[in-house]
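Bug #77: duplicate submission created two jobs. Keeping one. Sequence:
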Amino acid sequence: MSQAVVTGAAAAHAYCQKKAAASGSSFYYSFRFLTPERRRAITAFYAFCREVDDIADECRDMGVARTKLAWWRDEVARLYAGTPTHPVMLALREAVEPFHLPQQAFEQIIDGMEMDLGRVRYADFKALRLYCHHVAGVVGEVAAQIFGVSDHITLHYANKLGLAFQLTNILRDVGEDARRDRIYLPREELARFNVSEDDLLHARTSENFRDLMEFQYQRAEQTYAEALALLPATDRKAQLPGLIMAAIYRALLQKIRNGEFQVLDRRMSLTPLRKLWLAWMTWIKG
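Kept job's structure:
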């Protein structure tokens, strides 16, 4: 794979910073409250997630996409061998040992991105849950490691919080995903509420669809509650960045519900000012 090599730690971190900022993600708002060392580490990790996610989202040729993801698998191996070449991995190299970041986590994230290639369907929530573990739960665990963990239960909290984030994303992106031939709503649940894939593709909102979305909302909201209940008090201060993300994502989830689940023909979001306010208020409240 051709890739311009960026040398020097400063250049590598600048690359990651640009990658993270360009995404406009809610995650970026929580990074501002970290110490410089942890901020550099989480920004580099987030940039890695963006790199591999962009392959799954933007590469139309499945063969090329698999080749690119295979290259990233090799780059993960090079990272842990001490010989990375990509600027993201050069930036991550200084975070692996201090924050105890496991190689398996990076490999599992790539596994999740491979699940997004081709025609995406899930038979039931158990199958969807496995996908969410790879693309969100593991991400949550790595982020928690960077934020600071003194109790192993915090990793269970982080995994479940990642699931809640992903369920929110799925709810927000139902229409957009369907148009890309990705339907994450389990087939068993579509059938239970008498909603067809064609309804999603053609943005047909109905009472059945709203009932289905209310079911998805309730599950996501319950997952947030379960996750937050798991967080040990001893790690609450360290995990404030994750709590900031939870505040932002739960506000988005509520906005989707308040908007009567109009997600088939539009993409709901919070304004940057609203995200910043939620981040600040969560930080102040601790």
